[in-house]
Design goal:
Organism: Gordonia tangerina
Protein name: Multicopper oxidase domain-containing protein
Pfam family, one: Cu-oxidase_3
Shape: globular
Radius of gyration: 24 Å
Structural class: mainly beta
Largest sheet: 8 strands, mixed
Family: Belongs to the multicopper oxidase family.
Keywords: Signal
Helix content: under 10%
């Protein structure tokens, strides 16, 4: 394999040399005195075929209600869907009987959800796009795509957390997942998390909602909090895509990077909601509750309604805010979830309003031809007056309400972690990095159980990076601008493989700005702004609090369910009832090994795949 470089760095040179949008020079010369030959356009970015907006009805995923006494089945399948009326039915991947994405799972706080998971996937629909130079990806994955289901936001035992190395092959048994649901009611989601092909699997369709209910937020009419329910509570799974001329999804964004090579992420030019391109939804002229998620692979969006009407944010990933926050817009990074109340009562019958975005792509992406993806869907006011209840004044701390979110705790330790993108040519190619490390490097974070830490996320890149920690919820303390050039000049970055996250305190360019009111609740993903230090405060729970050992060792084979304490002797029962060592044993042609702990990573899925993801352990 020859030297390769990051897609943006490669294309940046091409775009800089042709900033006017043309290549220097002409193809051939015409006769003397003739008009000059037209310039050659620089084909840096693929664009989707033309599609008419707002011609498809918005679909809503089916719902599975979890029971503590009855397991639910989740099956990954190869299927097909029609993303737009004027496009053909094309291959997708999905869970259960959905044509794309997965059903919404509704579970209850304190009642365990048991999932029997299996894969019936056929050849990967992006088989030719998988990059076998990335961590652990083999040629086998093209015909037998591996998966690893992760409950994002779940306070989950490590063996059931969707570890990226705990991989399931198609047609090779059933994996049992146990989700305790011993956490506050909130908005979770489940999606694939397989090592180095997460973007391909999720982009293909392996993602779904998971709503955790309790006695306050029941999801039924007449719930104590007075929130819309039933047909007035709607999931909005927002995504971006590029489509090929033949209507198929395109995992590629540029012809400059050959097929089968990692690209680094791209802005889509078609907005999807619940698997439809620019759909429309008829709404009653009253109050709705929208459970919104940015399920995109790359983009941060600034979301608002086309008439600039106000609405209310009532919750983040980990549950409700103390009170509704009235706003006209908010920023949503990949994997962030927002609980919204939207009142359509001011609209006349037949009047329309669109859900919009006006946040431009990062500068380098814009230079390459990537454009603002400005529309997601249209709402059409119907004749029905709908739910006319008032917006609650409080959500926590009152009678029949959950306890208020407490003030942010005082941290016992400050931990510096870095986000960077080395640009030089290398073999393997330039990568995205946390702490200047690769996933397999041994210098991992080891917070102690029962301690509260402040993590200063030092983003020296100009781009945003949504950072997600498995197992825990946290609070955003604030963001401070960083003099990144001076910081790097004073602290030269060593080669990849040496931990690098110097103290940034001498290089701040301004005061800390606290979180926006609409992101001030319990979070599991934070928008780490480019050129800033983003500070979060997180408490790492103890085994007694969790009801399980967060540092247990477990097998990479998801069809085995066993754990042992750190330092113990690894044995697991075989089919014959005998015991065997769990490490380095072939299972279905794959080698199993001991795994331990959780991961934290960027939720730009290309970045996560290569290699902006690290392990961490909660130690006693």
């Amino acid at each position: 394999m020859g030297q390769r470089m990051n897609r943006r760095r490669f294309l940046w040179g091409a775009a800089s040399a042709a900033a006017s949008g043309v290549l220097v020079g002409r193809v051939g010369a015409g006769p003397a005195g003739a008009d000059p030959a037209p310039p050659i356009k620089l084909p840096t970015i693929f664009h989707s075929p033309e599609m008419v907006k707002y011609v498809d009805e918005m679909s809503v995923p089916s719902t599975i209600t979890s029971s503590p006494t009855q397991p639910i089945e989740i099956v990954a399948r190869t299927t097909s869907t029609r993303f737009h009326r004027d496009q053909p039915r094309v291959p997708t991947m999905a869970y259960n009987d959905e044509p794309y994405l997965g059903p919404t799972v509704e579970a209850h706080v304190g009642e365990q959800t048991t999932v029997h998971y299996r894969s019936e996937l056929a050849e990967h629909i992006f088989a030719a796009d998988l990059d076998t130079s990335l961590h652990g990806v083999t040629e086998r994955y093209r015909g037998q795509p591996v998966t690893s289901m992760h409950l994002h936001g779940g306070v989950t035992p490590p063996e059931f957390d969707g570890n990226p190395e705990r991989l399931m092959l198609p047609h090779h048994g059933t994996a049992v997942f146990e989700f305790p649901n011993r956490q506050e009611a909130g908005h979770l989601w489940y999606h694939d998390h397989a090592m180095a092909i997460t973007r391909a699997n999720v982009y293909a369709g392996l993602a779904g909602m998971y709503l955790l209910r309790d006695g306050h937020d029941t999801g039924t009419s007449g719930n104590p909090l007075g929130l819309p329910a039933g047909e007035h509570e709607i999931p909005l799974i927002l995504q971006e895509k590029i489509f090929r001329v033949d209507g198929h999804q395109s995992l590629r964004s540029t012809p400059v990077v050959p097929q089968g090579m990692w690209e680094g992420g791209a802005v889509g030019d078609r907005g999807l909601v619940n698997g439809k391109v620019w759909p429309t939804m008829t709404v009653d002229r009253g109050l709705y509750r929208f459970r919104l998620i940015n399920a995109a692979s790359f983009s941060v969006w600034n979301l608002f309604f086309s008439n600039r009407m106000p609405f209310w944010v009532i919750g983040n990933e980990g549950g409700l805010l103390n009170a509704p926050v009235r706003t006209r817009s908010f920023a949503a990074a990949p994997a962030e979830r927002f609980d919204l109340l939207v009142d359509f009562s001011s609209l006349a019958p037949g009047e329309t309003v669109e859900l919009c975005n006006d946040l431009a792509p990062p500068f380098q992406a814009a230079m390459l031809g990537e454009v603002v993806m400005s529309r997601f869907c249209r709402f059409v006011a119907g004749a029905d007056r709908g739910d006319r209840r008032p917006v609650p004044t409080t959500l926590r701390g009152g009678r029949g309400q959950p306890a208020r979110i407490p003030p942010i705790a005082t941290p016992q330790r400050v931990r510096h972690v870095s986000v960077s993108q080395p640009y030089e040519l290398r073999v393997p190619p330039a990568i995205m990095s946390l702490n200047n490390l690769r996933y397999a490097d041994p210098q991992i974070e080891k917070p102690r159980a029962g301690t509260t830490e402040r993590w200063d996320i030092i983003n020296i890149t100009p781009d945003p990076h949504p950072i997600h920690l498995h197992l825990v919820m946290f609070r955003i303390l604030g963001r401070r601008p960083l003099r990144t050039v001076a910081y790097q000049a004073a602290n030269p970055q060593p080669p990849i493989g040496t931990r690098w996250a110097p103290d940034p305190s001498a290089f701040y360019a301004g005061p800390m700005r606290g979180p926006a009111a609409w992101e001030a609740g319990w979070k599991d993903t934070v928008h780490a702004v480019g050129g800033h230090v983003t500070s979060i405060v997180v408490r790492f729970p103890t085994a007694d609090e969790l009801g399980f050992d967060p540092d247990a060792i477990f097998s990479s084979d998801p069809t085995q369910s066993w754990t042992r304490p750190s330092g113990g002797h690894a044995v697991a029962p075989s089919a014959s009832g005998q015991h065997r060592h769990a490490a380095a044993t072939p299972v279905h042609g794959m080698v199993t090994k001991d795994l331990q702990g959780y991961v934290w990573h960027c939720h730009i899925l290309d970045h996560e795949d290569h290699d902006m993801m690290l392990r961490y352990r909660v130690v006693s």
